[in-house]
Amino acid sequence: EDQNHDSENVPPPEPAMEVEAKADDAKTENKEEEISEINIPPDLSKVSEEIDQFIFALSSAKRDESEPPEVPESVEQYAVLVEAKIANHDSGENPVKWSQVAEEDSSSFLEVVDRISKLTTSLSELSSESKYAWSINRIGGIQQRAMSYLEDEFRSLLEDIFSDHNNYDSKTKQWSSSSTNQEADSCPLPDSDSTGESNFPGYSDEVVSNLNKLAKAMISGGYEIECCQVYIVVRRQAFEERLQKLGFEMVSVDDVQKMQWESLEREIVSWIKTFRECTAVYLSSERKLSETVFSDYQSISDSLFSSFSRAVMIQFLNFAEAVAMTKRSAEKLFKFLDIYETLRDLIPTMDNLFPDECVDEIKSEASLTRSRLGETMVCIFCELENSIKADTGKTPVPGGAVHPLTRYTMNYLKYACEYKETLEQVFREHQNIERADPATGSDYDYNAQSDEQRENQSPFAMQIFKVMDLLDTNLESKSKLYKDTSLSLIFMMNNGRYILQKIKGAAEMNDLMRETWCRKRSSDLRQYHKNYQRETWAKLLHCLTHEGLNVHGKVVKPVLKERFKSFNAMFDEIHKAQSTWVVSDEQLQSELRVSISAVVIPAYRSFLARFNQYLTPGRQTEKYIKYQPEDIETYIDELFDGNAGRRRQ
């Protein structure tokens, strides 16, 4: 019974895990007691030598697979000294700015951090050794605090861009100023050494040197991911701010689709300016920055710049793609051409601008965007054709003046021909696509052209001829809206002369249309002129013939009087009508008046001189001889002025 009673008072055995935990706590307490008894020497350099020896011993043990050394007291001594050094820099709420640290002190700090990192790495490689567990945690914690401070200072230096930003601003402003004085299709690249200053976007050489040192310390300490994340985030933010300063803001595809064309035009102008500046100045500077900050790690530098530049280029290309996807209309052609030329001029420079790992992808994306713009422009010409076909208004232009469709089409083609080389390229590429796969073709049918046309004309020239043929057909149809055949001929002369003058006044278009076409057009105009003369003035001149005036050798006065009356009435009617007609081309107007005067005035003067003697002077003369030759000339000079002119009462 006593034995049973004693056994009831014995406490139950503790679980094995609790026993181990208490044992570990006891070891930790003993370790801390040992540390408290350590005499910390003030000489950091001496302790550093001992740490270097320990790191070497750890490496040797791992290499030789020998017994790892015990942790020396110098490890904790070094830990305490390093903690104090970190505390001097990172004092919580008011850490010391790296830019304010003396060079000697910063070098010493980075040397300490580097040694801590090496010690952490060496101990971690032997983490299976239980005797290193406490030291790994202890040293790892110190390293983490040091890296946290370096990360904050790395970010601070990157973000503190504006205090030293004047150099980059002056460079980009100098480039912008020079580029605005160039033609719209040129994109001059600045001399990288033209300023004699640092090319880094907003940082002095001293700041970049500090960034390099901090990056090296973080990466060698195993904090590559944290370092790269800070770098890419801050640089992307700086890039967005740079775009805003340049007046451009990245917009989504949906936003582009919803924009009114007037607003989108302004965005395109801003896009071209910003895109050229970024590729000519900003990206090259950004690449140099990453190469210098990460000079000891080329693969990291290339990866960071590749990620940065790829994201930037995709943003720019997305905008261009979105523009190409907007509803097609003839007015958009010229802005599309500006975007197309910007991409075309940039693509050959990409090999020197982007790293090998991303250059092929970016070039491919840019080429694809350019090709899509090209195909859209071919379709825009089809829209121009459709707009000409659809202009079927039944109201004739007053006075037979140049039709608005003629003015619009010719001005459109004139401006299009200023991009002649680019459009030649666009239509050649489209021709190649159609030849390779006719099913992908547009309304533009290259295969419908004759062999002779294909041999003698470029694809773009054939497109221009097609538009001109459509315009001619439309004008022929509109000329039939006039009831007066003479006015119809004036309409055709006005429009024909306008077309010819536009072509002759534009060197690119004149070269495209060629001399044969222009001669044919001039011949058509002369024929219209002859037909007009015959239709209008032949009837009037018939009044001045001698036929029927003489009977048996005598002038029949009643017939003579009727001839004068008919001439007067007919001339009055012609003057009344044709002084309201419009011939705006001064040369054509003069040619018409001179040719009319050359036919009418001599005939009238001769008729008057021959037969006025048969009219009784006084009342009969005034009644039947209404005009003197000089009056006829005056009234002919009033024709085609677009108003009633002066009339004899």
From TrEMBL:
<feature type="region of interest" description="Disordered">
    <location>
        <begin position="171"/>
        <end position="200"/>
    </location>
</feature>
<feature type="compositionally biased region" description="Polar residues">
    <location>
        <begin position="173"/>
        <end position="184"/>
    </location>
</feature>
<protein>
    <recommendedName>
        <fullName>Exocyst subunit Exo70 family protein</fullName>
    </recommendedName>
</protein>
<keyword id="KW-0653">Protein transport</keyword>
<dbReference type="GO" id="GO:0006887">
    <property type="term" value="P:exocytosis"/>
</dbReference>
<keyword id="KW-0268">Exocytosis</keyword>
<dbReference type="InterPro" id="IPR004140">
    <property type="entry name" value="Exo70"/>
</dbReference>
<dbReference type="GO" id="GO:0015031">
    <property type="term" value="P:protein transport"/>
</dbReference>
<dbReference type="Pfam" id="PF20669">
    <property type="entry name" value="Exo70_N"/>
</dbReference>
<feature type="compositionally biased region" description="Basic and acidic residues">
    <location>
        <begin position="19"/>
        <end position="30"/>
    </location>
</feature>
<dbReference type="Pfam" id="PF03081">
    <property type="entry name" value="Exo70_C"/>
</dbReference>
<feature type="region of interest" description="Disordered">
    <location>
        <begin position="1"/>
        <end position="44"/>
    </location>
</feature>
<keyword id="KW-0813">Transport</keyword>
<comment type="function">
    <text>Component of the exocyst complex.</text>
</comment>
<dbReference type="InterPro" id="IPR016159">
    <property type="entry name" value="Cullin_repeat-like_dom_sf"/>
</dbReference>
<comment type="similarity">
    <text>Belongs to the EXO70 family.</text>
</comment>
<dbReference type="InterPro" id="IPR046364">
    <property type="entry name" value="Exo70_C"/>
</dbReference>
<dbReference type="GO" id="GO:0005546">
    <property type="term" value="F:phosphatidylinositol-4,5-bisphosphate binding"/>
</dbReference>
<dbReference type="GO" id="GO:0000145">
    <property type="term" value="C:exocyst"/>
</dbReference>
<feature type="domain" description="Exocyst complex subunit Exo70 C-terminal">
    <location>
        <begin position="270"/>
        <end position="638"/>
    </location>
</feature>
